# Entry
Amino acid sequence: MNLAIKVMFLLVTLSVSLKVFAHGDSSKAHYLGNEGVMIEVGGEKILFDPFFHNSYGHYTLVPTDIRQAIFENKTPYNNIKAIFISHAHEDHFDKDDMMKYLLTNKSVSLVAPAQAVTMLKGLAGFEKIKDRVFPVNLEKGQAAQNLSVDKLGIEAVRIPHAGWPSRAEVENIVFRVSVNQEVVVMHMGDADPNPSHFNEHKSFWPKLQTDIAFPPYWFSLSPTGQRILNNVINAKKSVGVHVPTNVPPLLKSSGADYFSKPGETREIKTD
# Structure
């Protein structure tokens, strides 16, 4: 092997090693509770649906120690770049907690449906955070809204809340977020598993492959929901969320992956 080939081989090996070090060991999803998830990619961190207090007697709240660590910016919940809210229900969003967190953590941005932002506007302190708040304004069937916040690539579509059409007024947002130009994650909120909702965005799903998606667990309980996860949304892997504290036996036997215990993690693979 001549010198030039040896040098090239070493450079390629070094490049691969650095990529694995920078991303492979640190790209993971941390479960907070209900649909609360933290994504960590090479030091970049984002949160989905982290602050809420209503379990409706069925769902997992964020434990006190995790909640306190988030508010106190402690490892591993420190240096959050942005927070995403799927919808403004009490098991996903608390306006007072959100205001408190954003006032204290002055480099964090918020991306949320207009209904949640309207709730924040009614609180004292909104003027101090408004430049870091990015509302998503979408009607059912409307083309995806694209945002660029803190170098995150963000795409949002409105998929009706489960129970549609009785909850048609709820702005449930599915976010597809590119983190650190390395990992693509999707958070689906309380999406309804009716194929017609997803067919309205049939050109959206193929445009970018998702490395890991977080659908509500009920998608795994029906052939229709499974087809959406496996054949429509273009995701390599799905991990169910919004799982009741008493995990349904059908979910246990389904073979689907899901979060049920706060503090759980999943590695996010990009290959």
